[in-house]
Design goal:
Length: 403
């Protein structure tokens, strides 16, 4: 189940990262500008957000298995349709569909972990999952770059369809139901709306979710802008780009495992703050390097590595802290987390391409603003958290799975 959950949470990185080396080629083949092609990233993120809004509450009502299997099967079909896209607007629409269907794997996998674990145990499990999930951003652009050596960008989406079919077979054969009937919710639209409102009114839940979402937004600005910055401004090949991208993702995996080792001894709040500070330092350093100009590729790579590596402390702790607030609505809470995370990324993605291949300043600015905003949000949340007593369920596993 550990391997399956890691693969399912990788739908986001797979959908976003694997076709990054092909973005310039897609723009040429479909006669579209960089900004228009980056809308395919935005569309996928919007789909991921909206899909989680649906899949999370549905899984709270019907259980985890059935909605998950339907979503993974739909993702395979959407990926094949992306490979056949005849124009940029069509690809944007199909990427929206791909995000909608792929969201089920992401949101339900998080809810399954919350069914099994809580508090520090959940943060530790999320950190371990990133060991598997982190292979996706390492391998996806490398695989995408190699696919481009033998075929066109269409083949990348065919490979994505094949991966999703393998996950579908694995989930159907090996994933148990983790939400007993007695713990399922009503599932009506009215009940879902009430749950969303209750979560949105919880300032601590929103604070943790938003600080983590802004941290992720900084990384997504890098994801959206780096293909054009590194290949267009610094003239690296698709293969070299994929190696740089993979090295940064390796830093993300390493820090997530360090986080998993520390979280039983260091409070998740402190680890989250450390990650946010590190990410902001990376973002501000990147902005300074770009603003100075003329320093070359060697000056821009280290700040990017620091930025991406910091997310290994941000994501697992932000998710665990937010979901520990409402264990009775793990699916809906996971969905709202996904909406905030994807929404921040969707806003930033088109902004990083405003200057096309002429300047890296828009990307660096979005990264720096997102990183500093994440720290401010977390500090405000921490002040409110100190005024409240800790919840008893934050340190206790909720079922025998936590043993």
């Amino acid at each position: 189940m550990f391997v399956l959950l890691g693969g399912l949470t990788a739908f986001g990185p797979l959908s976003i990262d694997m076709y990054l080396p092909g973005l310039p080629a897609i723009a040429r083949d479909l006669s579209a500008s960089e900004s228009v092609i980056q809308l395919t990233l935005t569309a996928c993120l919007i789909g991921l957000a909206l899909g989680q809004v649906v899949a999370g509450p549905v899984s709270d009502a019907l259980g985890r298995r059935r909605p998950l299997l339907v979503g993974v099967a739909g993702y395979a079909i959407a990926s094949l349709l992306c490979a056949l896209a005849p124009s940029a607007p069509a690809l944007v629409g199909l990427r929206l569909l791909q995000g909608l269907t792929g969201a089920a794997g992401i949101v339900i996998a998080r809810a399954i972990v919350r069914d099994m674990y809580s508090g520090s145990a959940a943060a530790r499990y999320f950190s371990r999952l990133i060991l598997i999930m982190g292979l996706a951003p390492i391998l996806a652009p490398v695989l995408g770059g190699q696919v481009l050596r033998f075929t066109s960008w269409h083949g990348i989406f065919v490979v994505l369809a094949g991966i999703s079919l393998l996950l579908l077979v694995g989930a159907a054969a090996g994933l148990p139901e983790t939400l007993p009937v007695a713990r399922r919710r009503e599932g009506s639209l009215a009940d879902t709306g009430r749950t969303f409102r209750r979560l949105a009114k919880d300032s601590l839940f929103v604070g943790y979710a938003l600080s983590g979402g802004l941290g992720f937004g900084a990384m997504f600005a890098y994801i959206a802008g780096s293909p054009f910055v590194l290949q267009g401004i610094y003239h690296v090949s698709p293969q070299t780009f994929s190696l740089i991208f993979g090295a940064n993702a390796l830093g993300f995996v390493i820090t997530s495992q360090v986080n998993g080792s520390l979280v039983s001894r260091v409070p998740p709040e402190r680890l989250l703050l450390g990650g946010l500070i590190t990410g902001a330092i990376g973002g501000l350093s990147l902005l300074a390097v770009v603003a100075i100009g003329g320093l070359g590729l060697a000056a821009i790579v280290p700040p990017l590595f620091v930025l991406v590596s910091s997310i290994g402390f941000v994501v697992p702790n932000a998710i665990a802290l937010a979901l520990s607030r409402h264990p009775e609505a793990a699916g809906t809470g996971s969905a709202l987390l996904g909406v905030i995370q994807s929404g921040v990324g969707a806003i930033g993605a088109p902004l990083v391409g405003l200057a096309g291949n002429s300047s890296a300043l828009p990307m660096a600015t979005v990264i720096a603003v997102s990183g500093t905003g994440a720290i401010v949000t977390f500090l405000v949340t921490s002040v409110r958290s100190r005024a409240r007593s800790p919840r008893a369920d934050e340190q206790m596993p909720v079922s025998g799975y936590g043993a």
